[in-house]
What does this fold into?
Amino acid sequence: MNEQRLTNFLGIDFGTNKEIAKEKMLLREGVVFDNENSSDEALFFDGVKFGGRITSYVFLLFFNDKFTKSTVVIKPKLDAYTINTYKEIKEEINSKYYISNSDFETYNEPYYEGDGYTESGIQNGNVEFSCYWSFTDQNNGEDDYIVIRINEDMEITITYEDGDLSDELANKTKEKNNEDY
It folds into this structure.
């Protein structure tokens, strides 16, 4: 963990309400609000450039009208570019914040590093690439995080999250799900 603080995503402070967060996102060049996929809890945006790369989409998640976490989704033109693009982005984040010691490449049998089937292994859930950076919370609460991973659709996801608000959201979701029992 590092003593740096993670307080915002693209200049939108964690805890900001939906209206202000939406306004700030729409000030960015080329950004379009995706009304069809958005909801009371999540705002989706298209046309977002992130780290100089075109994204598939970006969404901001809210809990009690407070900006809680964001996810950037990048889909390289070819699956063969995904791992290298992931590694480039990971190094860019390492260079901005600190070198993460939570960097994972996990291979489940029958896959192994260098076997030539890594992309297939990712697509069927037997190979995982992920890395995270932990930041001391500005209010001495739960740590805040950046997480990057490659999902089974060969998309690179980069998530920025406020630890306290994410915990509140998880607890509320668990409570709501437990009502069914």
